[in-house]
Amino acid sequence: xxxxxxxxxxxxxxxxxxxxxxxxxxxxxxxxxxxxxxxxxxxxxxxxxxxxxxxxxxxxxxxxxxxxxxxxxxxxxxxxxxxxxxxxxxxxxxxxxxxxxxxxxxxxxxxxxxxxxxxxxxxxxxxxxxxxxxxxxxxxxxxxxxxxxxxxxxxxxxxxxxxxxxxxxxxxxxxxxxxxxxxxxxxxxxxxxxxxxxxxxxxxxxxxxxxxxxxxxxxxxxxxxxxxxxxxxxxxxxxxxxxxxxxxxxxxxxxxxxxxxxxxxxxxxxxxxxxxxxxxxxxxxxxxxxxxxxxxxxxxxxxxxxxxxxxxxxxxxxxxxxxxxxxxxxxxxxxxxxxxxxxxxxxxxxxxxxxxxxxxxxxx
Length: 364
Fold this sequence. Notes:
Blueprint: E1 2-9, H1 13-24, E2 29-33, E3 47-48, H2 50-58, H3 62-66, E4 70-72, E5 75-77, E6 80-81, E7 94-96, H4 99-112, E8 117-119, E9 123-128, E10 133-137, E11 142-150, H5 157-162, E12 168-169, E13 174-181, E14 189-192, E15 197-202, E16 208-213, H6 225-236, E17 243-252, E18 255-257, E19 262-263, E20 266-268, E21 274-275, H7 282-296, H8 322-329, E22 338-340, H9 352-359
Parallel strand pairs: 1-2, 1-11, 2-8, 11-20
Antiparallel strand pairs: 3-7, 4-7, 5-6, 5-22, 9-10, 10-11, 12-18, 13-16, 13-17, 14-15, 15-16, 18-21, 19-20
């Protein structure tokens, strides 16, 4: 059995950021990831917001990300652009950068800090006792940590096996995201109608990136190519001969937040702790901030011992993080909520932080 002071489940942006933060505190940490490798299928989130860039800058990491993407004024509310260029910050802008690049940079940082990231490790559950948590894998192997942090997404197995309630609201709308081929030239750019927003773009790999709002809320499973075709026909009158998708998924405006971010020796961060409409990269940005907030609430390892296995968190209440509270409490309708005025999809974004505090006269 492999044993560590902290086992993080999930090597997305939240898990990788948290791993790096704990490694800086000389905590013995390891990351388990279900995917077979670091490569990410599909573009996912498309950028970073000002507060996230500030957080990265605090660790001397901002330039790594800024050199890979493009800065722009992306803040907005209900479709109205908001210029934050005069905000009292070194980074009064958003950064257009796809999640696969963001994850690669965070994985590089974790590697530099000596954090082992184990891919192909499918976690099925976590059972705790008075001294630690056993993490079970689908192949029968078992890992153990004094503490386990679930950064394993909205369907978090860590959260479920810990028995942490996930109250909130069910979906009122759903959209499909895909990267595929088309036989016909699509209508590039963003299109909005009574159903919602729809868009076509060219991906980095030369495929067609598709976002289309469905006429009715889709079922809680992965969508099919037939459903994608039907959704396109309903909006555009044609499916453009779409075929051969390499990535196809459904997202909704389901909004839920864990009743507690901690149950004994099990903690949560990122989408495992809160879900909401992901437009504008809200999940990624709040997740990275979750990771920093969580790591910052725990002291350096006991006695300053390097790679200590004697480590205790000081967050007994599991209080939700401020960024997550903001993201889940804003109106769920994209037409009413905070939006991104530009960017890959020009969708809602958690620049609501900047907007809300600017309106209140606060620099943050």
